[in-house]
Structure formats: structure tokens, C-alpha cells
């Protein structure tokens, strides 16, 4: 069965492709795929869904690794808010984003 361009499974595939580029240090190729993944997930699941938070975290990590701290900051904040609301403060996904955000804050000092 074929999926349309806005289907969540398409977002998952785009995210996986972006992760491959990210792991190879090909950040310019990864960025538009992470952005598209975020757009699809926001439309499919709503702005407060944990899958959206995962996409925000991925994009923020990408920006951090490029030294684009000011771009990463609001993405981490939003991801953290979503995870805390949806999953709670002690959930592993929430803790992961909190750790990533703490790393960012340390780099920004």
C-alpha cells in the first residue's frame, strides 16, 4: 500500500534518512529532512505529541553540533515541555531531552 506525502510513516522514513546523514556528519543534507519530518508529524499528530518532541530534539541536536545554539534552544525548550506534559518529568525521553538541553546551556555559557 502506498502512503501519501503527509503520512506519518513517510515522516519516519525521512527521519531515518536524516539520521543516516547526521551520523555521517552531513548536516546540510540532514536538516531539511528533519524539518520535513517535524512538519509532517505536527500535521498528523498535533503540536503537543511526543513524536513532535522527538523531531524537535533531533533538529536541536543537529543545530547544537553545528554550533547553532540560539536555534537549538527554543527547540529543546518546546520538546521538554511536550514530553513533561505528555510523559512526565521522570520518563526516559524527557530525561534525554533535559540532558541534551543541559549540555546546550553549558555550551552557551
Domains, number: 1
Can you write the helix and strand succession as a string?
Answer: HHHHH
Q: Structural class of the helix and strand makeup?
A: mainly alpha
Query: Which stretches are low in confidence, meaning pLDDT under 50 for 5 or more residues running?
Result: none
Q: How would you sum up the global shape?
A: globular
CATH domain topology: Serine Threonine Protein Phosphatase 5, Tetratricopeptide repeat
The CATH architecture category equals: Alpha Horseshoe
Biggest pleated-sheet summary: none
> What number is the mean pLDDT?
96
How much strand? under 5%
Compute the CA-based radius of gyration: 14 Å
Overall helicity: over 70%
Q: Give the CATH level 1 class.
A: Mainly Alpha
CATH level-4 homologous superfamily = Tetratricopeptide repeat domain
Q: Please report the distance between the alpha carbons of the first and last residues.
A: 50 Å
Q: Care to count the β-strands?
A: 0
Number of helices: 5
Amino acid at each position: 500500500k502506498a502512503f501519501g506525502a503527509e503520512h506519518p510513516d513517510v515522516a519516519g522514513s525521512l527521519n531515518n534518512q536524516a539520521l543516516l546523514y547526521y551520523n555521517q556528519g552531513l548536516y546540510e543534507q540532514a536538516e531539511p529532512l528533519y524539518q520535513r519530518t517535524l512538519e509532517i508529524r505536527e500535521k498528523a499528530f498535533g503540536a503537543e505529541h511526543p513524536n513532535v518532541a522527538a523531531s524537535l530534539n533531533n533538529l536541536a541536536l543537529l543545530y547544537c553540533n553545528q554550533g547553532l545554539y540560539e536555534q537549538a534552544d527554543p527547540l529543546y525548550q518546546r520538546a521538554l515541555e511536550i514530553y513533561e506534559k505528555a510523559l512526565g518529568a521522570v520518563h526516559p525521553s524527557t530525561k534525554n531531552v533535559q540532558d541534551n538541553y543541559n549540555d546546550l546551556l553549558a555550551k552557551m555559557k
